[in-house]
Amino acid sequence: MLATERGTAVVRIDHVVMPSNDLGQSLLWFQRVLDAHTPRIIGVNRRGLEREVPMLVFFTLANHAGFGVALQSQPIPAPVRPLEGPVCGFEIDERGMAGAIDVLQRRGVAFEGPVEYPAPSPIAASIFVQDPYHYVYALSMRRDPMRNPDPGQGEVGLRRISHVRLEVTDLERARQWYTTALGLEPAAPVPGERQITLAVADSGQLFVLREVPEMTGRSLFTRGVHVDVKVPVGAYAAAFARIDNPERYQGPISDRTPWHEPTQPTVYFYDPFFNRLQLSEHEPEE
To answer: Domains in the chain, please, with CATH?
Structure first.
């Protein structure tokens, strides 16, 4: 990104919304396994019941108040490969990997790992858990200077979203798009076959992009599912101008977001591989 455009780059991964075929089941899983709390339901009205808009449950997870799950109209297919995206990674606080493993074992939660990554990987180690629909969540220790100082939430001690891992079918095209559209910067790689790591410079949060032969049926579940990113206050218009695939809606007002949003402007859009994202401004109180 040009130096003159630095002020319009993404400054934070704010939240992620994942798919579900049963909002109650998913909410209970996030509460029991990852200490989610303070749920609120969106779209439980006539428009939601008629599937005009998605039904979602938002909750606070890893100090992110907007993490959520979105109800899908069709059964979610089983994964065809390990770590099939999207994968959301959370940073563990000073209680460390041993503390998280102890909590999961006491709760009877199955997990894989820990997997250790050698320096200079910004992620030092991760353990992996799966929700009822086999979406994977990484609980990770960071080794780079951009570790977050906030206290971890709950017994597991999750501080924040550390990274998101998305699948793409062309790594070079993905690199160019994410650096141009979002202003992400190169980062030390997280080890893995056919993948690159890009960083949100201000927060140190990561996008890990993995190349796959083709996107699977699970990538088509975009009804409410997205990764939300924030730009500085006053930068929305310039950032929006770089988006080449905004979401369009049906109805009398074709560009109206089909559910209630905050008063600040926001847009949902897609990368070249139809991973769905949301863009809005980062308010200071957030």
So the answer is: 3-281 (3.10.180.10)
Which residues contact residue 239 at a Cβ distance below 8 angstroms, ignoring those fewer than 6 apart? 8, 10, 231, 279
Q: Rounded to an integer, what distance in angstroms lies between the CA atom of residue 34 and that of residue 96?
A: 15
Residues contacting residue 173 through CB under 8 Å, at least 6 positions apart: 272
Q: How far apart are CA 243 and CA 204, in angstroms?
A: 22
Query: Which amino acid would we find at residue 98?
Result: A
- Pairing relationship of beta strands 226-231 and 266-270 according to DSSP bridges: unpaired
Enumerate the β-bridge partners of residue 142. Answer: 123
* Stated pTM of the model: 0.91
- Reported as a single tens digit per residue, the pLDDT across 232-263 is 999 999 999 999 888 865 444 445 555 555 55
Closest CA to 120 of 188, 208, 205: 188
Q: Which residues pair with 71 in a beta bridge?
A: 20
User: What is the residue type of 69?
Assistant: V
